[in-house]
Design brief:
13 helices
Length: 292
């Protein structure tokens, strides 16, 4: 990262408001010399996309730490870019689920009524405190690690969560069910905005607990329909903070689309439980690496 030269005191406020990507000018100028699509980023997008196609989870949980740990992307830039990456890829999912009528728009609306205001509030808070790149990283990294650990547990114990929902979910009164859905949306709004993790594994698990009689395809569809506006709003907030790498986003998308297609085609031929166990182990290692 470029080191700043000494500046007069009157310029300190302007320097603090300099976008994160501008502070990475050296890296950005080097990237600009090589075309629009980076093959390594595309390969990463392909691998993560294939895992998402195979398991249905793992997008934000893997992509953001991969960008931080392997490629040295700033934490805030990795989160912001991954949020828009998720919004783009899951928009295709909405079209598919809408065509097959596997979206409960009422539940999607309840989640969004909690998550969207909290996402906007979280972005506004980050902007209001005028956090520098280092301070923003200190917030994002531990939240990201905690979210990844939670995602790993949910991936590993997904069957148990569904069984628990079947046993106790019917005891929740309808009115309380709606309030808990809005509350879950509030938590997801903050967590996804700060880490880009949670819209998939956590959202599906929460809905499975609250709506145990709903078919899993409808739960997944409703969760995807909610994730698109949430990640789009949060990603737009990071864009306002100057934390989006558009070239990186294009490279990731160029690889993820064929990866998701391939993973979806292979999903019926491989052991989902083995893949989920491996994915959970990888997520635990990644979270530990982020923390230590």
């Amino acid at each position: 990262m470029r080191q700043f030269h000494s500046q007069p005191a009157t310029c300190e406020k302007d320097r603090r408001r300099e976008p994160i990507n501008a502070r990475q000018a050296d890296a950005g100028s080097d990237q600009g010399k090589t075309g629009m699509i980076d093959p390594l980023y595309s390969l990463s997008g392909f691998c993560v996309g294939a895992l998402v196609g195979l398991t249905g989870v793992g997008g934000g949980s893997l992509m953001t730490p991969l960008l931080i740990l392997l490629f040295g992307v700033h934490a805030a830039t990795a989160v912001g870019t991954d949020l828009l990456f998720a919004a783009c890829t899951k928009t295709v999912g909405i079209a598919v689920h809408a065509r097959t009528h596997t979206i409960d728009w009422r539940i999607t609306g309840l989640l969004a009524s909690g998550s969207l205001p909290m996402a906007a509030l979280t972005i506004a808070t980050l902007h209001q405190f005028d956090l520098r790149a280092a301070a923003l990283s200190e917030i994002v990294t531990p939240v990201l690690a905690a979210a990844i650990l939670l995602a790993a547990l949910l991936v590993l114990f997904q069957k148990q969560v569904i069984h628990l929902a079947s046993a106790y979910g019917d005891r929740i009164a309808p009115g309380k069910q709606a309030a808990l859905t809005i509350g879950a949306g509030c938590v997801l709004g903050v967590l996804v905005t700060l880490s880009s993790v949670g819209a998939g594994a956590l959202g599906v698990s929460v809905l499975a607990l609250l709506y145990p009689r709903m078919r899993i395809a409808r739960i997944v569809g409703s969760d995807i329909a909610h994730a698109v506006p949430l990640t789009l709003l949060a990603g737009a907030g990071y864009w306002l903070l100057g934390a989006i790498d558009w070239r990186l986003l294009g490279s990731l998308l160029s690889g993820s689309v064929p990866g998701v297609i391939l993973g979806s085609l292979l999903a019926a031929r491989v052991s989902a439980s083995a893949i989920r166990g491996t994915l959970a182990a990888i997520l635990c290692v990644v979270a530990a690496k982020l923390l230590f």
